[in-house]
Structure formats: C-alpha cells, structure tokens
Amino acid sequence: MALNTKLKSFVMMMICLMILKSKDTLQCDAPTHVNRCPRNQQEWKIREKELNCQSLHQSNDSKTELLYHCVLNAEGTELIEVCAPSKKIYGSKCTEFNDGGSIIHESYISCEKFQVPCPTPYNSTKAYEYQECYDIVEKEREKRKNRTENYDYKCSCFEKWTVAAVGGVIANVLIAIIYYQKKQNNKIKNEIKIL
Hints:
two-stranded antiparallel sheet; 5-stranded mixed beta sheet; elongated; 195 residues; alpha+beta; 5 helices
C-alpha cells in the first residue's frame, strides 16, 4: 500500500515537473504588466499590431471582438496590456482592467481635473489620450521604490500556476510521508502484539 502511495506521489511530481518545464510553450491569455503604455495613436497602433488581438478573436468561440488595451490595474499601481472588448468609460474616470472580473471598466481614479480631462463617455481603446492616468502609475512606482528596493510586483499567469503546482506537490509528499509513517507504526505495533 505504501508503494502505491509513493507511486502516486512520484507521478504527481512528474506531471508538475512537465508543466514547469513547458514554461516557454505555455500560452496564457492573462494580462501582461508593462513599464509603459503607448503615448500616442501611432505607438498604440504599433502595439495593437504586435499583440494581434484579432487573432485571439478568431480562435475564441465568442462573437465579441477583442481589442488591444493598455490601461491601469484595479489598484492603479501598474500598467497592463490586455486584449479585451472595448467599453464606454463614464464618470470622467481613468480606464482599468479588473483582473478578478477580467473586464475593462471605469477606475476609481478620477481624471476630471487633469490637464487633459477625460470626457464622459469615451471609448476604452482611447485611453492613451489621457496620459495623466498613466502618470499616476509612475508616481506610485516612485513611492514603492522609495519604500523598498528590488521589489518585483509582476506576477504572470505561469508564476501563479507554478506556485499552485509546487504547493500541490508539497502537500502530496507530506501526506504520503505521514501515511507511510502511520503504516510503519501500525506494522511495528502488530509485530509487538504478536510477540
């Protein structure tokens, strides 16, 4: 029985290692953290072409067109590139991507009093026209840099899966060890009773 548990644990570890080893081929539709968003329509068009969001639309069963976006994260602390449906942004707010809901929508950050204020409404694919929204992230980065050195906030989809996979392997190994030790203790107790 202990051999069976060891075999299961070994197979689980091998599967996790294969997943980890295939890092380069793993496709992830998750948003990507970037240091800078396009500053004008020309830069936007270049990034839009490089990301090729329309190809995702063709491989996706959804009839919703996916378009290039470079927007704030939900906390307003990072810039994110993502392929998502466009949305009208109301309330003179910056545009954000909410990772939890996987949607583009209004940020809590108001752009009403910016030098170039956001109109209400505007299309989320025009976020580059309101650069002060992006500048907020740069200010936030400076604050973080002053608080901590060498802090890397970026976490890709692959890293999240890696943590989950490694955690699963560790849990399985611990369960197997505990099971094996209990089995050995029961065996010793039975041998003592026989004597």
